[in-house]
């Protein structure tokens, strides 16, 4: 989903919702190209190359930070 609203300076932004982008990567890229006036007929859209940012070490750090920041709290998650 996207929306276009004029900024008052002649600029019309194209908004991309992250969740929509992740759910429909290729469709979003095609809509962006269309918005920019670029024909996507012969454009090959490669799958996204996302790196995993969270792993077990990340989870351990999050838990450690929570424990540290919640010391003395009655309701601790």
UniProtKB/TrEMBL annotation:
Q: Which UniProt keywords apply?
A: Transferase
Keyword Transferase on this protein?
yes
Q: In terms of domain of life, where is this protein from?
A: Bacteria
Q: Name one GO molecular function term.
A: transferase activity
Limits of the Sulphotransferase Stf0 domain: 10-67
Protein name (record) = LPS sulfotransferase NodH
């Amino acid at each position: 989903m996207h929306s276009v609203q004029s900024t008052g300076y002649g600029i019309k932004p194209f908004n991309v919702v992250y969740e929509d982008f992740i759910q429909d990567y290729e469709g979003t890229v095609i809509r962006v190209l269309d918005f920019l006036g670029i024909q996507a007929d012969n454009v090959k859209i490669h799958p996204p190359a996302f790196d995993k940012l969270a792993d077990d070490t990340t989870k351990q750090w999050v838990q450690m930070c929570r424990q540290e920041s919640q010391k003395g709290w009655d309701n601790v998650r």
